[in-house]
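LAB NOTEBOOK - FOLDING QUEUE
OPERATOR: T.R.
BATCH SIZE: 2
PURPOSE: Compare the predicted structure-token outputs for two unrelated chains run back to back under identical settings.
PRIORITY: normal
REVIEWER: second-year student, initials M.K.

ITEM 1
FIELD SEQUENCE / FIELD STRUCTURE:
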Amino acid sequence: MINQFKRLCTTNNLIYFFGIITILLALMPEASAHGVTEGDKGYIQESSGTMILPFIYLGAKHMVTGYDHLLFLFGVIFFLYRLKDVSIYVTLFAVGHSVTLISGVLMEISVSAYLIDAIIGFSIVYKALDNMDAFKSWFGFQPSTKIATLIFGLFHGFGLATKILDYKMSSDGLLANLISFNIGVELGQIMGLAMILIGISYWRRSGGFFRHAYNANVALMAGGFIFVGYQMTGYFLNN
């Protein structure tokens, strides 16, 4: 079935797709960077002292509503059937996300959130292409999906760390609040992943999974390119 799926990933189809995306990017409006609501922004800026439960809630809320994270995870588990494999990839992503979220804020490593988010969008494109066996078709080898998942997890965490630095969190209780926020992110990831797994499990039982797998990953790739376009538009309009 994978071979049937692979034959659909032709050069002509991809060229046609890239042409459509190019037109869409040319028409895009300005976009905002890594999503944190204005209300949450104000709360983060005004918070002082250790506030474990509120920051767990903020972390979970960010992850559940973070479509960039969820799209990437959707791509990661698209062809995974065993819970053991799902756990491995999700753990790698969580480790990468946790390391850069906490260390990025504590070490005050700041880069444009637009550029970081553009890389996050590219991670979605990469995973869609990986699911379509595009790298084997184009280059004759398969990059390590586990390493890629860890690396993109680092960028996902760094994207949020960059945004948190912009909000200038109080140093009072900073480490405890960051750890709490990260715990919330991982809890949100579990909730979001559970919803994805339930949906994709029903889809696989329908019998049309492999018939529509190519189109699903084209849509995933389109979402990634659109996300990249939004972030790069925001970057150039704000610099």
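ITEM 2
FIELD SEQUENCE / FIELD STRUCTURE:
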Amino acid sequence: MTAFAVNPEALKSTLQAVLGEKAKRVDVALGEVCIVVDAADYLDVALQLRDAPGCQFEQLIDLCGVDFSEYKEGAYEGARYCVVSQLLSITLNQRVRLKVFAKDDTMPIVASLSEIWNAANWFEREAFDLFGIIFEGHTDLRRILTDYGFIGHPFRKDFPISGHVEMRYDAELKRVIYQPVTIEPREITPRIIREANYGGQH
């Protein structure tokens, strides 16, 4: 392993040379390199990032979904759902962030990376569970954090804070049941303290 991480600008140049037009954007910000690719090129790019000389990103260390629907207070224009992966090259001591946007906001679908990096398996299940992003080619895409009877995807920006249903144990039926939410939504206005000597100040 090299003693120091690769210079971000040097890595950017390497990635542009390896990926060519498949990299829609390669940015450097705060010392980190980020690649944005089209959904159609996602798998090919992932394979090149893993195998190409100068890349050799052997490990996927994180993958998550993002909902951009309220980004910049609604001023954002573009695809709503994004999948963000963090890749690590142990061999070359370098990192890169890979972003892909799902083309369809009503049914967000991107390819699964689980055949390229095994670690993607549960990360993709989490993104499916919380955001409703479908990973095509995943062999076991099911909920991982919420209950199997859960309705909706709780990290979507339009998901109600109270949810749609609540779960409780019914003593008469002797089992867990689901019912509509009984919590009434309310807006809490914080009390503003105006006492001149608040906190012991005189």
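REVIEWER COMMENT (ITEM 2): The chain is about 15% helix and 30% strand.
FOLLOW-UP: none requested
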